[in-house]
Amino acid sequence: xxxxxxxxxxxxxxxxxxxxxxxxxxxxxxxxxxxxxxxxxxxxxxxxxxxxxxxxxxxxxxxxxxxxxxxxxxxxxxxxxxxxxxxxxxxxxxxxxxxxxxxxxxxxxxxxxxxxxxxxxxxxxxxxxxxxxxxxxxxxxxxxxxxxxxxxxxxxxxxxxxxxxxxxxxxxxxxxxxxxxxxxxxxxxxxxxxxxxxxxxxxxxxxxxxxxxxxxxxxxxxxxxxxxxxxxxxxxxxxxxxxxxxxxxxxxxxxxxxxxxxxxxxxxxxxxxxxxxxxxxxxxxxxxxxxxxxxxxxxxxxxxxxxxxxxxxxxxxxxxxxxxxxxxxxxxxxxxxxxxxxxxxxxxxxxxxxxxxxxxxxxxxxxxxxxxxxxxxxxxxxxxxxxxxxxxxxxxxxxxxxxxxxxxxxx
Length: 411
Ligand code: HEM
Prior knowledge:
- By secondary structure, the chain is mainly α.
- Helices cover 54% and strands 9% of the residues.
- Strands 1-3-6 form a 3-stranded antiparallel β-sheet. It has a 3-stranded antiparallel β-sheet with strand order 2-10-7. A two-stranded antiparallel sheet has the order 4-5.
- A hairpin with a 2-residue loop joins strand 8 and strand 9.
- Helix 7 packs antiparallel against helix 13 (211-242), helix 9 crosses helix 11 (162-186) and helix 13 packs across helix 19 (360-377).
- The longest helix has 32 residues, at 211-242.
- The structure holds protoporphyrin IX containing FE.
- Protoporphyrin IX containing FE is lined by residues 21, 37-38, 49, 220-221, 224-225, 228-229, 232, 287-288, 291, 349-352, 355-359, 362-363.
């Protein structure tokens, strides 16, 4: 684990042929599929990232703004008044709907509902570290063999075992994704969504992505692209509800810029204090606490000689708390992001180098739209005496009990 910015820099700027992120993330293969961008290295990683980049450029985000605001509005109208509910699962509903519409380009219908339910089930399953280890510690082939055996066991009880039920959900999701890809290949939609762009995309040799590559890519985007922003959103709500001065300042800014609303894409660049509040939240409550790289040859990092095969990990959580970088590091103080620019080796909630999160611009844009809509439309509080802790959810850090809140007024 490394926390000094010089060491983090050495890792992030090193030759990607010598430090493999895909191989270090390999434990997720059973879940994400072997063609997932997160698991690729070398030439294949470069090829696929290049094909995906255009869909995640800043300008492209503006086309998604209305969908994000609309999905958030609809969610708020469903929240119960004066009754305790967990906000984090609600955030997941919002971010999953946004992903389904913007990445996949599918709207309501039976297929939408089923895919949505399956993804929620898979996320719930992957949330338990024990189940995740049980299910994913084995190679996909091994899981497949065991599941096939258990499935035909007397009374089919095997299907309720965690690895088997996860496997069945993954199988059904695969089939739905492949069917949608086939449908879209036969009748191209010319939509703005990521799937339409990727179906048309060609690499430098003129080759398109295969069906299986597209399936793994879609699944990776739907899965990683909704859970992390949802948890981060929940953490920002937690900070806003426990820091009254910050809350007032953000609310004021949103009121001035957005007025009667709804929030639109052009408002996003005019919300610097909200931006600083999100950054300060990601500094103190990073959803992904570490990033990982596997050494392909012996290397010296920050004077430390390491053999090939070792995983070197820039630790987001600890670097973000170093007293020699951040003044009064434990204090929640968004203003620090307004007055000082941090380097990508001091502040890296989205990882770094050539592997930096592909969805960073998307997530930053989405989080501002969702939060501004919530601040505009809902008055939330944390129930009296509720202590919120950090809990592990799979590989991420989330607020305990999904962060219980009360909606006391709808504006
Ligand atoms: C607040 C929200 C998010 C956080 C905190 C986050 C964090 C991360 C981190 C730490 C990594 C690993 C980077 C590294 O190894 O250096 C990553 C990779 C990735 N993220 Fe995100 N992410 C978020 C949202 C999203 C969204 C919305 C999408 C998709 C739309 C997405 C797609 C990806 C992909 C595809 C990769 C793999 C990139 C590669 O290996 O080249 N993420 N993310």
